[in-house]
Amino acid sequence: MSPEGIHPAAEAVGLALDEAALARLNRYVELVFKWQRFANLTGAADEVAFIADHVADCLAVLPYIDDMPLADIGSGAGLPGLVIACARPALQIALVEPRAKRARFLQQCAITLDLPRVEVINARVEAWKPVTPPATLICRALSALETFVDSTHHLLTSHTRLLAMKGQVPGAELAAPWAERFVSVIHPLHVPGRDARCLIELRPRS
Asked: What is the pTM assigned to this prediction?
């Protein structure tokens, strides 16, 4: 697979990635399918579908990622954490994944893709107690915002950003009593082939 496999996906979400980032992302996609039988990483039929359905979706959040340490909660196949790391290798990123096979895949990717600032945490997020909590927590796989908040409450400070990738804007969730503890911002994501995608940003109220 050549860098041209990723380039159109990046352009479609408004990103201009350098050749090194494109090469890392292409190698990442190859690794996903090399490990697929062992770790059951994706339901995508092939590399082209994986790029369109998953990689492009994760690249779309890059404009909302700053330079502060980041943790991907429930990273799975590295979505979005490894995709972000491939594009932004200087960023300190923790990939929190409780399933051992997937954690082994993530660790192998960090080594193969030469991403020394990626740390893989093979644990449930509730059991993860870093010395310094990351400034930003992101998730793609969790279905409920309240679950995201509850499972990471021990990591929250007054300056933490929580970023949740969603489909339709979850109006009912954001109107629930728990959400009153947070300031919320909705960032629309424009991903070709997706009817609706958004990034929900939550910050604790001071």
From this structure: 0.95
Whole-number pLDDT of residue 3: 46
Please give, one letter per residue, the 3-state secondary structure of the chain: CCHHHCHHHHHHCCCCCCHHHHHHHHHHHHHHHHHHHHHCCCCCCCHHHHHHHHHHHHHCCHHHCCCCCEEEECCCCCCCHHHHHHHCCCCCEEEECCCHHHHHHHHHHHHHCCCCCEEEECCCHHHCCCCCCCCEEEECCCCCHHHHHHHCHHHCCCCCEEEEEECCCCHHHHCCHHHHHEEEEEEEECCCCCCCEEEEEEEECC
Is the pLDDT score of 95 beyond 70? yes
**Contact call for residues 75 and 98 (beta carbons, < 8 A):** no
Burial class (CB in 10 A: 0-12, 13-18, 19+), 105: buried
Domains in the chain (CATH in brackets) are 3-204 (3.40.50.150)
pLDDT of residue 4: 58
